[in-house]
Description:
alpha/beta; five-stranded parallel β-sheet; elongated
Amino acid sequence: MPANDHYVIIGNGPAGNHAASTLRDKDKDAKITIVSDEAIPFYYKPRLTRYILDEIDAKDLMVKQLSSYSDSGIRLRLGQPVDRIDPDSKTVFLHHKEEIHYTKLIIATGSRARVLPTMRSYSDCLKFISSYDQVMEYKDDIKQAKRFFIFGGDLVAFTFVRLLSKMNKQVSLLIYPNAFWPFNLNEEMEAAIAQSLKGLSVDLLVKDDIKAIAESGNGYRVRTTKGKELNVDMVFSFNGLIPSVEFARGCGLDIDHGILVSETMQTNIPDIYACGSCAQIYNPDINTYTTSIGWPNAVAQGEVAAMNLLGDHKVIESAGRKYFDLE
Length: 327
């Protein structure tokens, strides 16, 4: 490997960090840079709900401390959104106009909260829990608020509901049938959900939908298709994720919902790899591209991308039913 190699990784989650550590382990001399739009080092996103409640503090969110990057000879650029990539000149253009030149690139930007098409006109009313920056923006508001409307449904949503109940908040939870893909919400699941929320201050809404959300005083008024009207302080959406790949569109990369890659995590452009939930991986068993979620999948993909960038030919194993389709 040339001594002047510069491996650039866009994204500071499990895929990007594991790619970086694999690269450093195998190549002691190359320059390695991680670029992240977030302002803090690698952290546990699943712990954000507990952080809201102050069950843990900021240091308990961290997977890595800043010093660990410098100790490994990895340059970390925090709070630096990427505007675009130019594969011809092998350049990453940062939002503040800086240019970073690479010899090989790994894109591991993860996903952002999905806004349902029917909810886009109300997007200014919605809150999400998918990043540290979002949580910090309204952590204090959550503590002050008394009434919450939550719609969608996933593991983070149910954790959040339980934590709000623990804080003696009033919660209305509207369950969407398609929020449990690949399973269909049936009566048995409804009963199980209701039982799991028993004893909590939660008003469970099923077989209903949002008709309108409007600002009302210091909060919001939510109307449902069944005629229910709720006055709440905050509205949270938990309706899945979509890949964060906007900056990569238009540079020649094949992109559907995510960046299309082979089983080796290679994109259609030489020297560019993608991994984690921003990538759609070709699955020969079903002859289509799919995206996988979950920490273990991201770690495995980061390692495979790094090894193949270095000249290996490793193939990622199918994640089976952990795959999910994106909007």
